[in-house]
Design a protein that fits this description.
heterodimer; A: 308 residues; alpha/beta; Rossmann fold; six-stranded mixed beta sheet; four-stranded antiparallel beta sheet; B: mainly alpha; 10 helices; 73% helix; 0% strand; globular
């Protein structure tokens, strides 16, 4: 089957700044594709070109087999968009938000009403049907925005940082809903700087930094490739870094120092490394934990997602 | 991301945006209508009855009869221009309604046209309300007044376009007061609403000819009083040329503002 999105040497400049700097990727039908990266990496710019809000700066981008430069109206008709900024219509009630949005697609009123009620039910918003959107909580607003993006039965749902700014409970609630949608076969494109979100939801992802792709693969693959199973995290002053490496010896697959923290990637030899370095008196704390995407990012860029 | 021929944006997509604005309007029209016809009535009372008792007849008309048609014009002008300045800017900048709509099959030019149609709608509605009120006050002697809404369509387009040009340019919402101080208020005062322009020096009269409201006031006063001559067609033509010529500019400016 043809990929639903194909980007080739995709670029976008704002003035002299390259927000997206020649990236290639494809997205297959039915997968949840993640675009991961710190703030300012070019995630939003990339998806905004996919949903035809920003004109493509260079290279080619096709969505559902069509060039975004020439077929934006047709493409937009087949996408569901959940933007980063909440832009629900504050002049309208909850259910009218869905109905009026559907009217932009030319969906007949009766069909729209049926879908709206089903969406409100699915997102547990039925009780708020006639509420003003201002009176909804942050999590409810997000759910309503996702419901709105589904009103046209899209082929692809594009979510730009869907859970940024939400509390952990609201975030898990939204993940649950997105997993349901994924199980029903919906193609999802998701940007996030939450690594847990990416590991929970994405089948495949790209890691962006400064407009370039650093890595690409499934979350499990990426972690295995770059960080192994486990990470040993150690609190240690600068001056004892060399001593620590000497103690860990040749067993180490990789390491990283950030401030007063050391990250050791021991591969299959976690126990031996733990035994040898935990003897050092200069160590503040030592902890062994499963490796995650954050470690991959740390290792690839030498800095954390939130910046160091 | 836009239709290459600007006038082709008068389409079903623009109409969907217009319908969205209408849906919102149906929830708030009671308070809106009240405030919009209250102010012209204040002018009518203060100027027409108050000042009018010191002013003799103008061209054979009582002063209140002279200014009443101008109140239709000013109400229509204010409603259309505030729709496409403050209201559009709030939707664009604060509510991000424009951003939400352009993620659907509707394109930015069509959102702008939809908003301008809303301005035209309000011009016709609020102007007609004033027409109704002055009719009840016995100030409308002619059945030609039934053609007033047609003039209000032209008036609506003129000020929707001017307002939207400003909205495409302003750095922030505070700058709209310049639009009203520099453009709308002088037009309100010097387009023959309150006194015949023959009272002014020749040069001012020539300048007034370039103001769209001048032509609107002549059309409205002639229809309300039933003094209809073929010369009115020239005033209508002036307005139509103005509307057609200016139309691409607000679309261009708003597109430039939205699409980076």
């Amino acid at each position: 089957m043809e990929p639903v999105v194909t980007a080739h040497q995709l670029r976008k400049h704002f003035g002299s700044i390259a927000a997206v700097d020649g990236i290639d990727f494809t997205i297959e039908s039915g997968e949840c594709f993640g675009i991961l990266g710190p703030n300012g990496a070019g995630k939003t710019t990339t998806v905004a070109m996919i949903y035809c809000f920003l004109p493509v700066g260079g290279g080619t981008l096709t969505v559902l087999g069509k060039d975004v430069r020439h077929h934006s109206r047709v493409i937009k008709g087949c996408l569901g968009v959940v933007p980063q900024e909440n832009n629900l219509d504050p002049d309208l009630t909850v259910v009218d938000n869905l109905l009026v949005y559907a009217s932009y697609f030319g969906i007949p009123r009766a069909v729209a009403l049926e879908r709206a009620l089903a969406q409100l039910d699915f997102f547990a918003l039925s009780a708020k049907k006639n509420e003003e959107v201002e009176n909804l909580s942050g999590g409810m607003k997000r759910r309503l925005t996702i419901a709105r993006g589904l009103m046209n039965n899209p082929d692809i749902l594009v979510l730009d940082e869907p859970t940024t700014g939400l509390d952990p409970e609201a975030r898990h609630y939204i993940w649950q809903h997105l997993k349901h949608l994924k199980q029903n076969g919906l193609t999802i494109i998701l940007t996030t700087h939450y690594l847990e979100e990416a590991s929970q939801l994405c089948d495949r992802l790209i890691i962006l930094d400064s407009g370039k792709i650093l890595e690409e693969g499934s979350p499990v693959e990426l972690v295995a490739r770059h960080a192994g199973d486990n990470v040993i995290q150690i609190g240690i002053p600068h001056e004892h870094r060399q001593g620590l490496l000497a103690a860990a010896g040749t067993l180490l697959h990789g390491h990283l120092f950030i401030g007063e923290s050391a990250y050791l990637f021991p591969g299959k030899t976690a126990r031996q490394v733990m035994n040898s370095v935990s003897q050092m008196p200069q160590i503040g704390y030592i902890m062994q934990r499963p490796a995650n995407l954050e470690d991959v990012f740390l290792k690839l860029t030498g800095r954390g997602f939130e910046g160091v | 991301m836009s239709n290459s021929f600007p006038y082709s944006n008068f389409n079903q997509y623009a109409f969907r945006v217009f319908r969205r604005n209408l849906t919102v309007f149906t929830k708030t029209w009671k308070t809106n209508i009240f405030f919009n016809f209250f102010e012209p009535l204040l002018y009518l009372a203060a100027m027409g009855w108050g000042l009018g008792s010191f002013v003799g007849e103008i061209n054979g008309l009582s002063y209140i009869q002279f200014i009443a048609p101008g109140m239709i014009a000013s109400s229509a002008m204010w409603s259309s221009s505030s729709e496409c300045t403050y209201d559009s800017y709030v939707r664009l900048h604060y509510q991000k309604t424009y951003h939400a709509i352009v993620a659907t099959p509707v394109q930015i030019d069509e959102v702008v046209v939809g908003d301008m149609l809303t301005g035209v709608f309000k011009s016709v509605l609020y102007g007609s309300v004033i027409l109704l009120v002055i009719t009840l006050l016995g100030l409308v002697p002619s059945l030609w007044a039934l053609a007033v809404p047609l003039v209000l369509v032209l008036c609506g387009f003129v000020f929707a376009e001017l307002g939207m040009v400003w909205t495409g340019l302003v750095p922030g919402i505070d700058s709209f007061s310049y639009f009203f101080t520099i453009l709308i208020t002088p037009m309100f005062l010097f387009s023959g609403v309150f006194f015949p322009l023959e009272a002014l020096p020749e040069t001012v009269r020539i300048l007034a000819w370039f103001l769209p409201l001048y032509h609107i006031v002549i059309l409205l006063r002639s229809l309300v009083l039933g003094v209809v001559t073929p010369a009115l067609l020239l005033h209508a033509a002036w307005l139509i040329v103005f509307i057609v010529a200016l139309f691409p500019l607000p679309l261009y400016l708003m597109r430039r503002r939205m699409v980076k």
